[in-house]
Amino acid sequence: MTQDEMKQAVARAAVERIRPKLENDTIIGVGTGSTANLFIDALAEVKNDFGGAVASSEATAERLKSHGIEVFDLNSVDQLAVYVDGADEFDRHLHLIKGGGGALTREKIVAAVAREFVCIVDSTKKVDLLGEFPLPVEVIPMARSYVARELVKLGGQPVYREGVVTDNGNVILDVHDMEILDPKGLEQQINNIVGVVTNGLFALRAANVVLMGTESGVETLHDTH
Ligand code: 5RP
After folding, report:
1. Burial of 74 (C-beta count, 10 Å sphere; 0-12/13-18/19+)
2. By alpha-carbon position, which residue is closest to atom 7 of ligand 1?
3. What pLDDT shows up at residue 72?
4. At what angle do helices 58-66 and 34-43 cross, to 10 degrees?
5. Quick one: which atom of ligand 1 is closest to the CA of 32?
6. What residue ranges line ligand 1, CB within 6 angstroms?
7. Residue 225: what pLDDT?
8. I need a labelling partner for 116 at 20 to 30 A (CA). Which of 18, 78, 101, 206 fits?
9. All residues at 6 or more sequence positions from 129 whose CB lies less than 8 Å from its CB, including other chains
10. pTM, 2 dp
11. What span, in angstroms and rounded, lies between the C-alpha atoms of 98 and 164?
């Protein structure tokens, strides 16, 4: 199986997983990226079985709408049954690094509201220790240099993602060489730097389940302490 075929398989597996729970008024959260896009395409086949979706980015909102799936403002929704999204890395505790596509802040907000977070990945995303993928940090533009200096103090090598402005009008620093031994602690520490909107560690709100596409099919993974 190619990486694309693995992504396709987990996208379909996610639809099959949530399908029995869908009701007419169910609103689901939908993530951003190539795997999430395949999920949206598969979700379109059952679009008459649920109420609509909250999108984690403008791009996702456009793709949902193009399939005729209604997109809701999160402020008009009390709860989300489930959030489905990809990741750039995950570990055995289902802690994630996300934000390769720059949508980390809205992704984190939608994930926070959802009762269940189903993460859909191919097997190349599995790591023993998070941090080989540079950790994205969304920053208020005027704080970019200050935040970069603070990230260096934490042991990282921040690189400005040139030419990228997030859906929230901010910039992204990708932090290389960060030793992530305590994902929850580091997530809080980085978020405490003035000027940081949020960072791409999803450890305080980890995934509840990871569907991982492999050569031999889709595996369902839970946190193993
Ligand atoms: C976007 C993300 C994506 O989930 C992450 O980058 C994985 O993307 P893909 O499914 O294309 O590999 O966090 O901000």
Report:
1. middle
2. 87
3. 98
4. 30
5. 1
6. 31-35, 85-88, 98-104, 107
7. 59
8. 101
9. 91, 180, 181
10. 0.97
11. 16
**Residue 142: partners with Cβ closer than 8 Å, 6 or more residues away:** 195
Number of other residues whose CB lies within 10 A of the CB of residue 113? 16
Which of 4, 10, 32 for a ligand 1 pocket mutation test, highest count of atoms within 8 Å of Cβ?
A: 32
Structure confidence at residue 94 (pLDDT)? 98
**What parts of the chain have a pLDDT lower than 50?**
none
Residues in the chain: 225
Provide the terminal-to-terminal Cα distance of the chain, rounded to the nearest Å.
Answer: 30
Angle formed at CA 116 by CA 87 and CA 209, multiple of 5 degrees: 50
Q: Which residues are CB-neighbours of 193 under 8 A, at least 6 positions away?
A: 147, 150, 151
107 is catalytic: yes
